[in-house]
Amino acid sequence: MDEFMKKIIDMGATSGGKIVLAILVLVIGLLLIRCITKMVNRRLEKSKMDATVKNVLGKIVKILLYLVLAVGLIEILGVPMTSVAALIASGGLAVGLGFQGALANLAGGFLILIFKPFKLGDYIEAADAEGIVRDISIFYTKLLTLDNRTVLIPNGDLMNSNVTNLTAEPVRRIDLDFKITNDIDQDFVKSVLLSAAEKSSGVLREPAPFARLTAVDDDTYIFTVRGWCDAASYWDVYFDLIETCSKALAENGIDDPEERIAVRLVSEEGDGEE
After folding, report:
1. Which of 87, 124, 212, 239 has the largest CB neighbor count within 10 A?
2. By the 8 A CB rule, do 227 and 241 touch?
3. pLDDT tens digits, residue range 152-191?
4. What CATH number does the domain containing 38 carry?
């Protein structure tokens, strides 16, 4: 027992100083990393770089600082770097196989940074998800859906799928279809819909709104209304245009064939009861 305690004391005497020094370096290093990252982020905010690039560069700088601190702690504790390198090399294959998905996401993150298919604030559709881009990290991209859900998409999946950027252009086009009974004058319906589109809030005058007969289905005419609007106000204008056109059709006595069939059925059933 005495020999065991003596060995513990000797080990503490020889390694205790290194452990205390490592703790001090760890505390000071974490404080320095916090200060440096704040300084880097301030510099990036003042620069004219894209917001996505700023975000990713800030995270890369932070990771590199942590790696430098880890290497310094290993040196202080007296662990031979050759042993560490050998350990990393021997485990590299296993780690690579185990983290194939993570490496693909990492590569995808850098490709997004380089090619910039979208940026923070864009509304995109990709990998069976859609929403506003809230964050682009090294491994994942965070989307916020219209119903306020957060979706995390691996960057590898993003780079291997079709990405539709709905806000890349300053204006977007709204397409609406209206079914009309075929016993009403086509030119009259066209003028009603076109006038409603022109009066609808948010619809741009250039390019001009469009209203035409685009299809015929049995005893039904299908009229298409198209209007351009600012991309940022797409959904507001979309719903306003539906309301404006629907009200204009109703005010001019233009029926939806499905509503007319429903009325006829109700009328026939009523006659039977009488």
Report:
1. 124
2. yes
3. 999 999 988 899 999 999 999 999 999 998 888 999 999 9
4. 1.10.287
